Amino acid sequence: MLLGIASAAGVDASRLRVAKLETAPSAALHGLLSVIRAQRPHLASMTYVEFLCHVHRQIQNKLA
User: How far apart are CA 56 and CA 60, in angstroms?
Assistant: First the structure.
């Protein structure tokens, strides 16, 4: 069991928050999360339909 849940099935990951404590491990974890968030593509915040439309537009632009 991690983060107080037995399974990630059905969990809205966008609502999960990691508490920021005044400890060295907490600061290290938040530093790591900041690096990961800075490196992930912004396409991850799109819905699946928005992503498909975005890819479709890119293909159309390359073929034009």
Answer: 6
